[in-house]
Design goal:
Metallo-beta-lactamase, Chain A, single chain, 7 helices, seven-stranded mixed sheet, alpha/beta
Length: 241
């Protein structure tokens, strides 16, 4: 599998950057995880005609699905075959209805424990800890796994959910010193490192970098205190497993 980062920021982009977006390529299958502001432009650098097999949205906050609203225009104007499969939670209802009523998306409701097949790729959904309905995605292809946390704070199931993954793509919005209380909406870089170590993953890639952060060296150092094989996601970089 190949993972390409289309956007790494949240809840708003850094100058010249893009919000959450990731492309998974496995054999003949191409899946997009999230499509935040700026991610569609980067996707079209790889697939000008957006010929992907589906889009998986962990939740419906704007920094994760904002470009879905302009994708509605791109698909018919580029004469791309529709409907395009989109997996997303049914809440918040206003955002879900906007996507479902567009006429260009085939909506599939996200549910914890649901398994979906796209070619030879299996996607298993897991519940996350976030203020709105949110899901993590466990993506498997020929015995290799990429686990994407979506936006989440620490919760009791997280280590078991991602145990043994080849790549853990983890929300790491905060530094430990920035964490706004025990029930934070996002992981810290240190917590992401702790989860990676406890779960025995192959590699940790920290993402959802705060858009106001000027450098990520402190994030990287904090995560590596717990798990050495760690990187900070870089836009348009490829990661292989």
């Amino acid at each position: 599998m190949k993972l390409t980062v289309l956007g790494r920021h949240g809840p708003f982009p850094a100058p010249g950057g893009a919000c959450s977006g990731y492309l998974i390529q496995a054999g003949d299958t191409a899946l997009v995880l999230e499509l935040g502001p700026g991610a569609l432009s980067n996707l079209r650098r790889i697939y000008p005609n957006i010929n992907v097999d589906g889009i998986l949205l962990s939740h419906l906050h704007s920094d994760h699905m904002g470009d879905m609203l302009v994708l509605r225009y791109a698909l018919p104007q580029l004469k791309i075959k529709t409907p395009l499969t989109v997996v997303a939670p049914e809440t918040p209802e206003t955002e879900y209805r906007t996507l479902a009523s567009s006429g260009v998306f085939e909506m599939v409701s996200a549910k914890a424990g649901r398994k979906l097949r796209f070619g030879e790729v299996t996607v298993t959904l897991h519940g996350s800890s976030h203020p709105v309905e949110t899901y993590a995605f466990d993506i498997e292809y020929r015995g290799k796994r990429i686990f994407y946390t979506g936006d989440t704070g620490m919760h009791t199931d997280l280590v078991n959910q991602c145990r043994g993954a080849d790549i853990l793509l983890a929300d790491a919005c905060f530094l430990n010193a920035e964490k706004p209380g025990e029930k934070a909406q996002h992981l810290t870089a240190g917590e992401a490192g702790q989860v990676a170590k406890a779960a025995g993953v192959g590699q940790l890639i920290c993402t959802h970098v705060w858009g106001g952060r000027e450098d990520t060296e402190q994030m990287l150092a904090e995560a590596r205190e717990h798990f050495a094989n760690c990187l900070i996601a870089e836009e348009m970089h490829e990661y292989h497993v």
